[in-house]
Specification:
Elements lengths: L1 H17 L3 H27 L17 H19 L2 H8 L3 H25 L11 E3 L6 E3 L18 E2 L1
Helix pairs in contact: 1-2, 1-3, 2-5, 3-5, 4-5
Length: about 170
């Protein structure tokens, strides 16, 4: 599903650009990149354990206004977070697969952060919002607002000089 979310967020970023909503465009681009990192981590894990990975087909997402896309994203993120609640990581730990558990814990924490950033954006007035953008850890997909970020990613210890800026 990370692939589908990445494609959706990319579509929403294009709509925000059309509406000249640069703050939300940056957020959607950062979220799309974070989801791409999550997809790559899961694909790598599947391949390491002898499985295959093929991105799912993604049909066109009908993009509406940026505000509607933001509301849809929040609802989907909450639903996704409620469904997982760390259950996949728990199953991985019980089966002795610490590598997969670590990846799933990173993704779960990052998904929670996505919800916070989306809700914060929804509560901001896009015409007066002065967003300086977002930083995304390229190793685990953790997202930061550029106004406050750590020297090292708390999930994977990547130095902030490696973070990708949106």
């Amino acid at each position: 599903t990370a692939y589908i979310h990445s494609m959706r967020y990319g579509s929403y970023a294009r709509q925000a650009a059309i509406e000249n909503d640069h703050a939300r465009k940056s957020l959607f681009l950062a979220l799309a990149y974070s989801e791409q990192v999550h997809e790559q981590m899961c694909a790598r894990a599947a391949q390491l354990f002898g499985g295959n990975y093929t991105p799912p087909y993604y049909g066109a997402d009908i993009s509406t206004t940026t505000n509607e896309n933001l509301s849809r994203s929040i609802a989907l993120a909450h639903s996704r977070h409620r469904l997982s609640q760390g259950s996949a990581a728990t199953r991985a730990l019980k089966s002795g697969n610490r590598y997969a558990a670590r990846i799933l814990i990173w993704i779960n924490g990052s998904n929670r952060r996505h919800i916070e950033l989306l809700e914060h954006s929804q509560n901001q007035n896009p015409t007066t919002s002065q967003s300086r953008g977002y930083l995304v850890c390229p190793k685990c997909g953790n997202i930061y607002h550029t106004s406050s970020y750590d020297i090292y990613c708390p999930f994977c210890q990547t130095h902030n000089s490696d973070f990708k800026q949106f």
